[in-house]
Amino acid sequence: MVSAATTGDTAVVFIEIGLILFVLGLLARLSDRIGLSPIPAYLIVGLAFGSGGFIGPTLSTEFLDVAGEIGVVLLLFTLGLEYTPKELSKGLRTNAVTGLIDLVVNAAPGVLLALFLGWSIPTAVLLGGVTYISSSGVVAKVLRDLKRLGNRETPVILSVLVIEDLVMALYLPIVAVMIAGSDLRSGALAVVIALAIAGLLLLIAVRFGHRISRVMNTRSDESLLLGVVGLTLVIAGIAQELDVSAAVGAFLVGISISGPVQERASSLIEPLRDLFAAIFFVLFAFRIDPGSMPPVLLPALALATVGIASKVLTGWWAGRRHGFATRARIRAGTALIARGEFSIVIAGLAVGTTIDQRLLPLTATYVLLLAVAGPVLTRFADSFANAISSDR
Amino acid sequence: MADIQETHLPGIGIRFDFPTSDGTRVGVLVHKTGRRELLVYRQDDPDECAISIELESDEARTLAEMLGASRIIEQLDNLRQEVEGLSIDWITIDESAEWANRTLGEAAVHTRTGVSIVAIITANGSIAAPGANELLQPGTKVVAVGSDEGIETLTAHLRVN
Fold first, then answer.
1. pLDDT tens digits, one per residue of B70-91
2. Which of A47, A167, A389, B16 is most buried, with most CB under 10 Å away?
């Protein structure tokens, strides 16, 4: 039985969600037109609609909360789907040093700033993750848009992204345990257990991935879609229950699926991911009071400036190692600048925990700056390179 | 055969490229989705693509056929030169040629030119090692083996001009 009141509520919810999605659609189109990622636009919509924003919230967010979480799971799933186990192990073997430099140079500014501001160690680890990880979605799109897929630096850029993803698989369980906030000794034990479970799942994914893929392979698109999403959510749920974080579970399911199913699964699930991930980004910004952003603007600007320099440095170093000329090194470095979805996923872990909530506006500002600056700067990479060379 | 370099692009596909003799690198990027991208690198900056053209699968096939066709002709050219002093040629018989509509025996091809007709190619298939009773029908093609001069003489009898 549907009462009049519920019908009325449903109508309001439909209209609200519908309006938000419609506006997101328009902004995504605009972003695409000017060659930018839609993520900054999503964040701005969230800030405008959210608590303390220009437009008052009447939305019950319970449904949206779950939808946003599914968005994170699908983001990580499609990330894992993108790479085969072979590509991951090869990337790690051939570019481990570059990956390590990328990690140290780019995580350090976040960690140091958090400690400088007197924030807790777990907050510092989260902020380090935020500044470390490039947005593989934005980077891949930019390389495609600028027709750089054939360039010599592109395999190097991609292998840096591959290693960042592997680091995520180890980083997320550690962070999940740290946020749970146990004392040092039982915390260390929990980290070890979480890493062991993540490692075990990774091993299963790499070893038995082709079998899982074969079992999932059906001719019906419908069955494949439901089966893959179902499996992903189940593993994500179990991983969450084991304190390894749902995202890692989803990522590992993505890795284990390879071969002919991979291509079909990604074309089926990507639209679904785009929908839920958009809800996640809006919801993340929804919780941020725009009034809390001016106080963190200065640290965010400083962090973004360092974040540009540190990625350019990473690309420069990686390019030099492969014997590239200045232009290719600058292109590699600037291509990596963009931060996006994963920085927000990491900061999103802090929502509603004991972590300093100033992390959220700081991350939002940081991502807003770099998701725009990255694609723009790399477009002019060759001009920078020419300027540098002519100076000498 | 050019020395092809193969590079795996995680998440995207495989790139093949090789340097041409004029110093330009050309390559093909095979996307996981099956899409092809034709790449031409800059001569002044070999790290960067000057041109990248996306090709749908039928377009890629068309381009490959265009490139492959000229290659077959090239190979046939080479074949003709292969045995010194011996030529192979394909001659289409003209309507009003001197020997048109005669049998091989009547024309006494071998005696007069020293050339052997090893096959006759018609619209319905080919006749290998044709006998003296086979007709030199206009519009069909003969495959002749012999000396250069012999083939020239034969051509003069099978074609007008």
1. 555 656 655 555 566 677 888 8
2. A47
Structural class in CATH, domain B75-158: alpha beta
Is any Cβ of chain A less than 8 angstroms from the Cβ of B52? yes
What are the sequence ranges of the domains in chain A?
37-388
Per-residue pLDDT at A56 exceeds 60: no
Predicted local confidence at residue A3, as pLDDT: 44
Please give, rounded to a whole number of angstroms, the shortest distance from the CA of B65 to a CA of chain A: 23
Listed in sequence order, the residues at least 6 apart from A98 whose beta carbon sits closer than 8 Å to its beta carbon are: A156, A159, A160, A163, A314, A317, A318, A321
Per residue in A68-77, pLDDT (tens digit) is 899 999 999 9
Taken in order A179, A269, A343, A25, the sign of the CA dihedral is negative
B residues 17-36 lying closer than 8 A (beta carbon) to A: 17, 27, 29, 32-33
Cα separation, A367 vs A288, in Å, equals: 14
pLDDT higher for A88 or A131? A131
Substitution target in A84, A142, A152 with the highest count of B β-carbons within 10 Å is: A152
pLDDT at A218: 79
* Cross-chain Cβ contact A140/B11 below 8 Å: yes
Full 3-state SS string of chain B:
CCCCEEEEECCCEEEEEEECCCCCEEEEEEECCCCEEEEEECCCCCCCEEEEEEECHHHHHHHHHHHHHHHHHHHHHHHHHHCCCCEEEEEECCCCCCCCCCEHHHHCHHHHHCCEEEEEEECCEEEECCCCCCECCCCCEEEEEECHHHHHHHHHHHCCC
Give the pLDDT score at A233.
Answer: 95
The pLDDT tens digits of the residues spanning A101-110 come to 999 999 999 9
CATH topology of domain A37-388: Na+/H+ antiporter like fold (1.20.1530)
Percentage of chain A beyond pLDDT 70 is 93
The domain limits of chain B are: 5-68, 75-158
